[in-house]
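hiii, so i know i said id send this last week but things got crazy w the move. better late than never?? heres the sequnce for the chain we talked about at the cafe, plus the structure i predicted for it. fair warning i was half asleep when i ran it
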Amino acid sequence: MNTKERAVIIFKRLLKRYPAPEPALDWTNAWQLLVATVLAAQCTDERVNKVTPALFRRWPEIADFAAADVSELEEAVRSTGFFRNKAKNLKAAATRIMEVYNGEVPRTMADLVSLPGVARKTANIVLSNAFGIHEGIAVDTHVKRLSFRLGLTKNTDPVKIEKDLMPLYPKQVWGDINHFLVYFGREVCNARKPACPECELSDICPKKGVKG
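okay and structure toks below
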């Protein structure tokens, strides 16, 4: 079985398991999704979902973030970790959106990654989920781990992994691939002790890097 054939089987089986994939983060517009994704770095989605309701009540619009006192933003996002850097980047990103993009979250990869604190992963998540635009596949820790274990890539660099994954799937499902691997990585194929006996991909998985 070649990599392309394995990739197709993986997609079909995970689609059956997750027929309606959506982000685990709570959001109602592109800016909220961008903020939540930035906060989710080195933090759980569950923790972020506890923080964002109060955050968006206090600063409901992009302009409000741009005008916010950064020390108050820090306190609001403190429990997500790396709070000083996250608060600084969110304020700076909001300021750039107001000044350069007329208060609208941009809709291209190049423009999104020009925002402080926004790299390809966050940009891909915002483009795919908020705008239905697929310019790439978001590669987080789960996607990185599963792509390697499942033999879909030999690389460990997220940018190279993304380039390996993109040709394996139709462009319109690139967002779904991210969701599938994130969900499956949390529920079955976790980092320390993957549940291989219960895994519906076990028969086609080369189990790269899995001990025992």
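btw Residues 35 and 180 are 22 Å apart (CA to CA). thought thatd interest u
miss u guys!!
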